[in-house]
Amino acid sequence: MTTVASQLEPRLAEHRGELTGYCYRMLGSAFDADDAVQETMVRAWRGIDRFEGRSALRSWLYRIATNVCLTMLDGRQRRARPMDLSATAWQPVEASLTARQTEATWVEPILDGQVMPAGGDPADLAVERESIRLAFVAALQHLPARQRAVLILRDVLRWKADEVAELLESSVASVNSALQRARATLAARQPTPMSPAEPLDEEHRELLSRYLEAFESYDIDAFVALLHEDATQNMPPYEMWLAGRDDIARWMLGPGSGCRGSRLVPTMANGQPAFAHYRVSGSGGYQPFALQVLELSGGRVQAITSFLDTRLFGLFGLPPQPGDAGSS
Known about the structure:
alpha+beta; globular; Nuclear Transport Factor 2, Chain: A
């Protein structure tokens, strides 16, 4: 191993978390982000002897990661949420399980610990939390890939225009123009700004405790009482999305009634509270079923997204059985 390689090797791993966050915002998938960061590290390792230190190691890694993401995005359809696919109303309860898309169709969740550093400045953590929320990541997918990179680097990571221009081998004027177009697109996609993600306090923890209790006891009256009147529910990979307490209650008492007897294990995803959802298995135990990501607002649940991709349990380090989770 050369002297340069031996000096830089330990420092590469220090940037893995922030690179994962960047690639996740670019790609909309925790699995794709993991692949992109792995490829970034492989390319960096192979080229480490050619790294001359003329730019910061961090900038060099972001250049590689950006190129990896742009290659991965080339020719791909954008990822979305179920409500993004429908130009009209939500699907009625009776038709909720009739349309299913591949996992590559959907924006996927990511574990907070993969992208958010422990501790740190509260203001910086607030930005991190906002910029990995499902709605924001889904909105980013509407941007052309290079505009997406510019907006993330400038507005989320707070890079200077000349730094982004150097990374993209472009001009400052071109970067500023791309940023303006990207901001305009996001404003059109989100004419009403999202409510800020609220840090979990005692009131929120009480709400989540009541949510868990109502769901596990399958007390639907108590459950829907915790929801906003216009709350939404969606369940990738199905195209279904429901709006309002009444439709959510009808679905849970109808097609969703197989969730009776389920167990929930708390976790955090996309800067929001989440639950690992285990359903009763045929053998009488429990099996992984879904990852529920909640959005809270005004002391109630505003949205529930249940991801049925059970690969997420392994990615999130979740136990195969709820009883193995301990007090987590």
